[in-house]
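Researcher: Go.
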Amino acid sequence: MTADTLSPIGGLLRDWRKRRRLTQLDLALAAEVSQRHLSFIESGRAAPSRDMVLRLAEPLSVPLRERNALLAAAGFAPVYHERAADDPRFAAARHAVELILTGHEPHPALAVDRHWNLVFANKAVAPLMAGADEALLKPPLNVLRLSLHPSGLAGRIANIREWRAHIIERLERQIEATGDAELVALREELKGYALPPDAKPYRAAGTDPLGGVAVPLEMRTEGGVLRFLSATTVFGTALDIGLAELTIETFFPADGETAAAMQRAIVSPQAG
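Model: Structure:
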């Protein structure tokens, strides 16, 4: 029987440390504990206290959900809770999200959970989803699947190659940070989607309309191609699991034509 079998918390902490590319000395210094004690915990020769588990998780930037898993592996009850969106204790956070989304109109904005399932959206989002297969719009609506699926929005995204690469790269970073197996499965699913037959070649560096400053989302509509820049907002002080995992995506016009079109609400999908 191995030490990790006797003390699974040691193996989990070691995995997180290696994922963050830290040595035992690095983590020990960051957590202000002795390297010897950390070594004993990882090898199963010492059992960490509840406070020690949380102390080590902080410099490792372990997500709240996974911190509960670390506590459980060490024999302790979870500290962090996940409240339903309609829980009265979630009201202030829900109101903050709604203010951001509605305040961003007429431009699209949405909120997603850790697996990119839609949680909230403002009124400008639905028209941009028009024309997608109804099966992809049923809850839980995964916005990445909807974006890249051949029956979703892929055919309407003018720069699908660049946008697909951007999404995959972002998923890679999220997987690196969390080790989430469901995100790994989602990444592999997205990578397996065929590109639209008329997908344009990759643009040469710096030749896109924004001069290589950022990857825009370019959506074909009846009013022409709308170009958006996206920005991400998270709750930096969240102690609720669901709130900590909530990501708000806001899309801003990347050119004057898009800004004018959104003001006129010309967002119907391109025919055919």
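Model: The radius of gyration is 22 Å.
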